[in-house]
Amino acid sequence: MQIVVTIFHLIFSLSLIVIVLLQSGKQAGLSGSIAGGAETFFGKNKGRTIDAILSKYTAVAAIGFLITSVVLQLIINSK
Question: Structural domain boundaries of the chain?
Fold first, then answer.
């Protein structure tokens, strides 16, 4: 059981690192924040941008990482 949870923990941690590194920075300068932010905010596909998708994946990976961390701690403490 501990080995399976550890494997999932490693998968979630590596995916979390990769997803965060794939996201663009929030401070792209003044021109990027005005033009890029307006296009994303007022655009029709606001929820379908790559940054929005990566943000959702980041939340899923972070929740999975948190759950596997708690489960691993409980498994180790029960021994």
Answer: 2-78
Are the C-beta atoms of residues 38 and 44 closer than 8 Å to each other?
Answer: no
Q: What one-letter code names the amino acid at 78?
A: S
Report residue 62 as tokens: 């972070």
DSSP per residue over the chain, as a string? -HHHHHHHHHHHHHHHHHHHHHSPPS--HHHIIIIIHHHHHHSTTGGGSHHHHHHHHHHHHHHHHHHHHHHHHHHHHH-
- For the stretch 28-51, pLDDT in tens is 544 445 555 555 555 556 556 888
**DSSP 8-class letter at 46:** G
Q: Which two tokens stand for residue 13?
A: 């941690």
What is the crossing angle of helices 50-78 and 2-22, to 10°? 150
Give me 22's structure tokens. Answer: 């794939």
pTM: 0.72
